[in-house]
């Protein structure tokens, strides 16, 4: 059993996206809720709701898809975990990487909570780089 919750949610979302699933159910923690709120705010997922089952909470995510003339196709999410329990990666605000020239996002864990790289640069806060998403 893995204790790395960030790796678990990224893998669940990546697997559901590759298998063309519309919804994903992930275990609820405060960290996962904050990361999913960032993904929702940045437009990488469509919807999030909290669900309780046998005194355990889950987040049910609706993955984003687009329509074109030929029908519905899903956008592919590229999720990459950077910091792991065995190797933490820290960065000051000046060295936070830009993903695809600003098209992707970096999610950081800072002293003021979990935020995107853009927000951390504006507030001049460094922190632990959790993952890249594009």
From TrEMBL:
<dbReference type="InterPro" id="IPR000630">
    <property type="entry name" value="Ribosomal_uS8"/>
</dbReference>
<dbReference type="GO" id="GO:0005840">
    <property type="term" value="C:ribosome"/>
</dbReference>
<dbReference type="Pfam" id="PF00410">
    <property type="entry name" value="Ribosomal_S8"/>
</dbReference>
<comment type="similarity">
    <text>Belongs to the universal ribosomal protein uS8 family.</text>
</comment>
<dbReference type="InterPro" id="IPR035987">
    <property type="entry name" value="Ribosomal_uS8_sf"/>
</dbReference>
<keyword id="KW-0687">Ribonucleoprotein</keyword>
<comment type="function">
    <text>One of the primary rRNA binding proteins, it binds directly to 16S rRNA central domain where it helps coordinate assembly of the platform of the 30S subunit.</text>
</comment>
<keyword id="KW-0934">Plastid</keyword>
<keyword id="KW-0699">rRNA-binding</keyword>
<comment type="subunit">
    <text>Part of the 30S ribosomal subunit.</text>
</comment>
<dbReference type="GO" id="GO:1990904">
    <property type="term" value="C:ribonucleoprotein complex"/>
</dbReference>
<keyword id="KW-0689">Ribosomal protein</keyword>
<dbReference type="GO" id="GO:0009507">
    <property type="term" value="C:chloroplast"/>
</dbReference>
<keyword id="KW-0150">Chloroplast</keyword>
<protein>
    <recommendedName>
        <fullName>Small ribosomal subunit protein uS8c</fullName>
    </recommendedName>
</protein>
<dbReference type="GO" id="GO:0019843">
    <property type="term" value="F:rRNA binding"/>
</dbReference>
<dbReference type="InterPro" id="IPR047863">
    <property type="entry name" value="Ribosomal_uS8_CS"/>
</dbReference>
<dbReference type="GO" id="GO:0003735">
    <property type="term" value="F:structural constituent of ribosome"/>
</dbReference>
<dbReference type="GO" id="GO:0006412">
    <property type="term" value="P:translation"/>
</dbReference>
<keyword id="KW-0694">RNA-binding</keyword>
